Amino acid sequence: MDKVALGNVQNCPVTATMQVIGGKWKILILYLIFNDINRFGKMGMMLKDISKQMLTSQLRELENDGIIERRIYPEIPPRVEYFLTAKGRSLEPVISQMRDWGNEHLFNIQSDVATGR
Amino acid sequence: MDKVALGNVQNCPVTATMQVIGGKWKILILYLIFNDINRFGKMGMMLKDISKQMLTSQLRELENDGIIERRIYPEIPPRVEYFLTAKGRSLEPVISQMRDWGNEHLFNIQSDVATGR
DNA sequence: AATAATAGTATGATTTTAAAGACTAGATCA
DNA sequence: TGATCTAGTCTTTAAAATCATACTATTATT
Fold first, then answer.
1. Could you list the residue range(s) of the whole structural domain that residue B14 is in?
2. Is the pLDDT of residue A3 over 50?
3. Which of A24, A40, A82, B59 is the 20 to 30 Å CA partner of B85?
4. What CA–CA distance (Å, rounded) separates B38 from B42?
């Protein structure tokens, strides 16, 4: 099968966005941070079935992509907190659209366009 | 580490949406179908580095999720074409948001809100 | 002196994903 | 007669993702 690139990963902005937020746990992690659950241990407790190293790697990727910020406090035992960056907060309309579509087409919950709920 | 479910995959509409469009090639496949490239062979040629069985599995998942429709023509050699369903077309605003965010934050291309370009 | 606390890392094993290549049907073309 | 076409499937095989478990540092507490 001869291959010809036309729509490919490198020049598709949607696919590029997917790479940033599409990780197995990233949406849920962003949800937790959005709800002020921003410590490693707490996140691990909230996310059923995630392993420490998986949590670490997802957090690192979000950090490397500039979506979240990692703040280390010089304390013992160590304290680290994660926060959304401006870029991370800019994902809000993207995630809202996905939420609305999911509610409407997967959970059959209609959203009120006026309120966004 | 004790686990407590709070935000989990089953009740998160965003994660649910991700499961539908988040497959490795799904966005690109939808893009092709949107651009009237709707035969298996053509898609395979356009998507560099995709294998036949990967293409098949992605198409099957999209079909099972009601996003695309598979139409078989009783011809020899066989002809099969894929089309977006109404549900598939309803993804348009979701994908547009992702495209805009990607262009703005990953490719540094500003989008004109008025025209959507 | 041992234990607990946090936010991880290191190691090795296992599971999952994905690829390559061979194979199929049935009509048509050379 | 044998090759060609399409849209796949099937069977290995290799690679990537993920897990469980043990381990680290340093201070405070018991």
1. 9-84
2. no
3. A24
4. 7
